[in-house]
Design a protein that fits this description.
There is one protein chain. The chain is of the alpha+beta class. About 50% of the residues lie in helices and about 25% in strands. The chain has one domain: Alpha-Beta Plaits (2-Layer Sandwich), CATH 3.30.70. It contains 3 helices and 3 strands; from the N terminus they run βαβαβα. It is elongated, with a radius of gyration of 16 Å. It starts with a strand and ends in an 11-residue tail after the last helix.
Length: about 100
């Protein structure tokens, strides 16, 4: 595979979601943890789903894959915005930096 990085996502679950969308549109896809998240995985016995994950496509598919990646990113950003708005209306005096962790 003449793989090029399409984007870097937050974790393997997000990478799998994007690859599923790409594959549904006829674009071959794979992903790998970035150097940083791969190193973190060795601390916990080599298993870690969290951390930056590169999504790879064929170079010839890069132009077709970008709008799909952008649509997923926009959808996730919109979902996060709606979640924070709902939280604000339910808890108007809550700490604005709280993210749920």
């Amino acid at each position: 595979m003449d793989a090029v990085t399409l984007t870097v996502v937050g974790d393997e679950m997000e990478a799998e979601a994007l690859c599923g969308m790409l594959r549904a549109n006829g674009i071959e896809c794979s992903y790998r943890r970035s150097d940083v998240s791969a190193g973190i995985g060795t601390i916990g016995g080599g298993f870690a789903m969290a951390g930056p994950t590169e999504v790879l496509v064929h170079e010839r598919d890069l132009a077709a894959a970008r709008p799909i990646a952008n649509a997923l990113a926009a959808g996730l950003a919109d979902a996060w915005r709606r979640l924070m708005e709902a939280r604000e209306s339910a808890c108007p005096n809550a700490d604005p930096l709280w993210t749920g962790y």
